[in-house]
């Protein structure tokens, strides 16, 4: 097993240079790590046809794979001209996620990079797209690229949740900030730290008008406690006061609006595994992916960017 850390770029099946190529090349240079590019090909029609004419279909498949490999190697060659240490390969496989896990087990991956793929809400309920599998289950940090206006990120946004109560969850906030700080330092980017205080957690309608003063008092106390925790967290990571942002409102819209206003290139956040209905509907992180005006870098507990 190779001990040299590297980046893994998952290229789209179509032979098209996408924003993830430029982001991967820029990060490889910034992080001073080698890059491996892999594309996954599969055709159900060819697989079925191969049952009746295996020799002809095998030739057709090998010819297509060779063409794709040559195209991918050409893209790698362009990156190498700019100083990126890069390799590439094309794999014929029906289930890409299982193959990605093989790369995770065989390589020391610092980061997986992939273009974000939009899916309809209905399809997300009945299928598990590769993006969602990576967000939920992949142990390696995942960078899903929506655009690469700035191939090397200039503005990095870290999202934390100070409502985390258990010790391992509190450590997770530290890992999120550490990852964002590391990325910002490597890319010479500006870091902003954000927590959104969800005021909808206090539902005064259910309490009745008579309980409004009590609800307001609870709301203010919770807000003050969260603000104090957020300030201590930012101080621990030496985030300057002008780059700490405590926002009141709905998390999804608050984060996305802030990202637009501050022209964020990457949102760094944490994702955890969810079961049952939550897994079907998606977490805030997955919702942000489809609403955010920029790319997303998601980490799991204990697996941030390594030094």
From TrEMBL:
<dbReference type="InterPro" id="IPR006016">
    <property type="entry name" value="UspA"/>
</dbReference>
<protein>
    <submittedName>
        <fullName>Universal stress protein</fullName>
    </submittedName>
</protein>
<feature type="domain" description="UspA">
    <location>
        <begin position="175"/>
        <end position="300"/>
    </location>
</feature>
<comment type="function">
    <text>Required for resistance to DNA-damaging agents.</text>
</comment>
<dbReference type="InterPro" id="IPR006015">
    <property type="entry name" value="Universal_stress_UspA"/>
</dbReference>
<comment type="similarity">
    <text>Belongs to the universal stress protein A family.</text>
</comment>
<keyword id="KW-0963">Cytoplasm</keyword>
<dbReference type="GO" id="GO:0005737">
    <property type="term" value="C:cytoplasm"/>
</dbReference>
<feature type="domain" description="UspA">
    <location>
        <begin position="19"/>
        <end position="145"/>
    </location>
</feature>
<dbReference type="Pfam" id="PF00582">
    <property type="entry name" value="Usp"/>
</dbReference>
């Amino acid at each position: 097993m190779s001990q040299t850390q590297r980046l893994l770029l998952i290229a789209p099946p179509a032979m098209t240079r996408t924003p993830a190529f430029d982001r991967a090349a820029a990060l490889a240079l910034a992080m001073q790590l080698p890059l491996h590019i892999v594309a996954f090909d599969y055709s159900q029609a060819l697989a079925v046809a191969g049952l009746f004419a295996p020799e002809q279909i095998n030739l057709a498949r090998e010819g297509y794979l060779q063409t794709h490999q040559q195209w991918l190697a050409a893209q790698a060659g362009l990156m190498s001209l700019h100083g990126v240490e890069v390799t590439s390969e094309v794999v014929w496989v029906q289930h890409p996620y299982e193959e990605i896990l093989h790369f995770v087990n065989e390589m020391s991956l610092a980061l997986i990079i992939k273009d974000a793929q939009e899916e309809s809400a209905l399809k997300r309920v009945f299928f598990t797209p590769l993006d969602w599998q990576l967000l939920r289950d992949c142990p390696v940090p995942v960078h899903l690229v929506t655009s690469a206006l700035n191939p090397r990120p200039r503005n990095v946004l870290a999202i934390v949740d100070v409502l985390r109560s258990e010790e391992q969850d509190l450590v997770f906030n530290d890992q999120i900030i550490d990852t964002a700080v590391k990325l910002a330092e490597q890319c010479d980017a500006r870091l902003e730290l954000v927590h959104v205080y969800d005021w909808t957690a206090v539902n005064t309608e259910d309490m009745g008008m008579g309980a409004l003063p009590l609800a307001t008092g609870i709301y203010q106390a919770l807000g003050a406690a969260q603000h104090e925790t957020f300030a201590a967290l930012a101080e621990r990571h030496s985030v300057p006061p002008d780059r700490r942002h405590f926002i009141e409102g709905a998390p999804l819209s608050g984060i996305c609006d802030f990202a637009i206003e501050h022209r964020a290139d990457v949102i760094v956040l944490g994702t955890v595994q969810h079961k049952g209905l939550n897994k079907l509907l998606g977490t805030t992180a997955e919702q942000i992916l489809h609403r955010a005006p920029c790319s997303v870098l998601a980490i799991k507990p204990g697996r941030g960017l390594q030094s």
